[in-house]
């Protein structure tokens, strides 16, 4: 079975996970490569170490922020840097 973007050592049946859970977790942390778990020959889950998971979540959050910013630009909801600086300076003077 070939799963896109993985090699055969990164694909294991669920029985392997059940029999080797501690080793699987150790390898995930050391190699930082996701492991595809199969059941009845079909890919069913992906396991990854916590550091990689957190990095992925941070990257997704950044991509969301960028996408929302692009929508704001397309909708004309932007201000020039000069306007923002002037507004901040005038606010600082009144505080």
What features would you describe in this structure?
The protein has helices at residues 14-19, 21-31, 50-74, 81-94; strands spanning 11-13, 35-39, 42-47. The protein is α+β, with helices and mostly antiparallel strands and 95 residues long. The chain has 2 domains: 8-48, YefM-like fold (3-Layer(aba) Sandwich); 51-94. It has a 3-stranded mixed sheet with strand order 1-2-3. Strand 2 and strand 3 form a beta hairpin. It is elongated, with a radius of gyration of 23 Å.
Structural class: alpha+beta
Number of strands: 3
Total domain units = 2
Q: Provide the gyration radius in Å.
A: 23 Å
> Runs with pLDDT <50, length 5+?
none
What is the global morphology?
elongated
- Please summarize the sheet with the most strands: 3 strands, mixed
Quick rundown:
This protein has 4 helices and 3 strands, in the order βααββαα. The chain has 95 residues and is an alpha+beta fold. Strands 1-2-3 form a 3-stranded mixed sheet.
Short descriptors:
three-stranded mixed beta sheet; elongated; 2 domains; 95 residues; YefM-like fold; 15% strand; alpha+beta
Summarize the topology.
Layout (H helix, E strand, L loop, with lengths): L10 E3 H6 L1 H11 L3 E5 L2 E6 L2 H25 L6 H14 L1
Parallel strand pairs: 1-2
Antiparallel strand pairs: 2-3
């Amino acid at each position: 079975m070939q799963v896109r973007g993985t090699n055969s050592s990164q694909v294991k049946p669920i029985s392997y996970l059940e029999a080797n859970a501690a080793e699987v977790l150790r390898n995930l942390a050391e190699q930082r490569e996701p492991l595809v778990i199969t059941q009845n020959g079909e890919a069913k889950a992906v396991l990854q170490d916590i550091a990689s998971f957190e990095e992925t979540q941070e990257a997704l959050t950044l991509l969301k922020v960028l996408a929302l910013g692009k929508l704001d630009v397309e909708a004309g909801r932007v201000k020039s840097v000069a306007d923002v600086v002037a507004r901040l300076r005038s606010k600082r003077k009144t505080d």
